[in-house]
Design brief:
The complex is a heterodimer. Chain A is an alpha+beta fold. Chain A is built from 12 helices and 8 strands. Chain B has one domain. Chains A and B meet through helix 10, helix 11 and helix 12 of A and helix 3, helix 4, helix 5 and helix 6 of B.
Chain lengths: 323, 179
């Protein structure tokens, strides 16, 4: 999924650069374009920019809506902010592209909160630096083509960062510099999900959807195929787990399993929230979260999932203990 | 027994545990006895007055074990006649049925476990009881034990496999603790 995210950013960058070049070409002093060519280029540029804004807005919404992208792309709110500012700047540039002079300097200040274009550019630059450690804008300009090139550079920096700094270990995507315990946790979760799948405890679609992303002290997991079925594990202090699910029966059991790991858990309408030191009980938490996958299917029809001898063994021992 | 299964599963939504007990006394012609026809022993067990003490003890024990493990659920009942104990359990969805028959001969109990759903293997039953078990067919296992308590344990284990549908979190606990 990270690939999808990165691909979208690279695609947007490419289109922005092509649009910027097309309007620079028809407006350069050496251009032999007729007024009709210029107007056509401007219209085409605006149309293509609409496509880019649609794509980036969709990406932003999916990140905000706890969709699969939010698992693939941590640093969540910062990335969303980058997209918001990019969209604003593209829209400003788009409005500034006039049929007769598509690359005219925009007014010093634009209508959005009285901010200058350079303020938006500075904020975008600073956000990208915060995520990637590198700047992306060095010249603040007011020409639409320059603004589009600046946004393209920032999207490129972000895409490059996410593609360059990620190592894949099983289902875990590890961003360089992430904490050791978070990586160990993810690797254990990965092997447990493999084991549970081999024991026939998962539905096919749920298994196919499993993915994790480790970013610094946090692990973002996609634990099933349902929309929004994600989990965040926070290894900072005091730390905790946030599990999202709308199945109340599953939430009750997940809360109990995580509670057994020494966390203090509350069963909510939309999932479970637990507080406590995850680092000291990461193996227990990994198992509970591996178990969350397809739990709804197992609760609905446990008979279907006890065909494996090891599972049947465990169930019989559990029944025997309770008698 | 097949009539009983058909009747019980077909009426599942209407009969609770008490209904099942009533079912044993009214719908099985050979069990209809006068004054009173059957006596309750625990939540899941009913017996004929002249039922052998050893089998009644197995029935009472199994009833206690099942009640402890699954609470009072309307998916199982046992009855004891002059020469055997029979247990019928079915899953919430009615798709799974488990029948256990216990007979006593030469101081030993022969326990026959038949199920339409997943059946544990002879080895698994042997691991959790001191029974000696063997598979008769895909759906039937026969075990032999000397103590009534072990026979009761076999009934509870075999029935638990089907009753887990009424308490599915037990499977989750089992996975968490033992897989």
């Amino acid at each position: 999924m990270a690939d999808v995210f990165v691909d979208r950013l690279f695609e947007a960058e490419k289109t922005l650069r092509e649009v910027a070049t097309s309007i620079q070409l028809v407006t350069s002093p050496q251009s032999t374009a007729t007024p009709l060519d210029v107007a056509r280029t401007a219209r085409n540029a605006v149309r293509r920019l609409h496509e880019v804004t649609d794509s980036l807005a969709n990406l932003k919404d999916r990140l905000k809506d706890k969709s699969i992208f939010s698992v693939a792309v941590p640093a969540g709110s910062d990335v969303v902010e980058v997209l918001v500012d990019s969209l604003t700047l593209i829209r400003i540039a788009s409005v500034g592209i006039l049929p007769d002079n598509p690359d005219e300097d925009l007014p010093e200040r634009v209508g959005i909160a009285g901010l200058a274009v350079s303020d938006f550019e500075a904020r975008l630059d600073s956000l990208v630096k915060r995520i990637t450690g590198e700047r992306c804008i060095y010249l603040y300009e007011r020409k639409p083509s320059a603004i589009l090139n600046n946004v393209a550079a920032c999207l490129h920096r972000l895409a490059e960062y996410f593609s360059r700094t990620t190592v894949t270990r099983g289902k875990c995507n590890v961003v360089t510099g992430s904490s050791e315990v978070a990586v160990r946790f993810c690797e254990l979760w990965d092997s447990l999900t493999e084991r549970f799948n081999a024991l026939g405890l998962y539905g096919e679609r749920d298994y196919a959807a499993l993915k994790a992303w480790i970013y610094n002290d946090r692990v973002y997991l996609r634990v099933g195929s349902a929309q929004g079925h994600r989990t965040e594990v926070d290894f900072t202090s005091p730390g905790g787990v946030r599990y999202y699910d709308e199945d109340r029966d599953v939430n009750r059991i997940v809360a109990r399993l995580l509670g057994k790991c020494g966390l203090s858990c509350t069963d909510l309408k939309d999932g479970v929230i637990c507080k406590g030191n995850v680092a000291s009980s990461y193996a227990c938490v990994a198992k509970a979260l591996a178990q969350a996958t397809s739990m709804d299917l197992r609760l609905n029809d446990p008979q279907e999932f006890i065909k494996n001898e090891k599972v049947a063994d465990a169930l019989l021992r559990r029944i025997a203990r309770s008698m | 027994m097949s009539y009983l299964i058909e009747y019980a599963t077909g009426r599942r939504k209407e009969v609770g545990s008490q209904g099942l007990v009533a079912l044993f006394s009214t719908k099985i012609p050979e069990l209809q006895l006068p004054n009173p026809p059957l006596e309750p022993h625990g939540y899941y067990c009913v017996t004929r007055r002249n039922a052998p003490v050893a089998l009644v003890s197995v029935c009472e024990d199994a009833s206690r074990m099942l009640e402890k493990a699954f609470g009072r659920v309307p998916y199982l009942a046992m009855y004891v006649t002059e020469n055997e104990l029979r247990s019928l359990g079915y899953s919430v969805s009615s798709e799974g049925i488990v029948e256990v028959a216990v007979a006593r001969a030469s101081g030993r109990f022969t326990v026959s476990i038949r199920s339409t759903a997943a059946v544990a293997s002879p080895r698994q039953y042997e691991a959790l009881t001191n029974a000696s078990c063997s598979r008769i067919s895909e759906y039937e296992i026969i075990c032999s034990v000397s103590e009534p308590r072990q026979a009761a344990r076999l009934i509870a284990l075999a029935s638990g496999f089907i009753l887990v549908q009424s308490k599915p979190r037990m499977l989750e606990e089992a996975i968490n603790e033992g897989v």
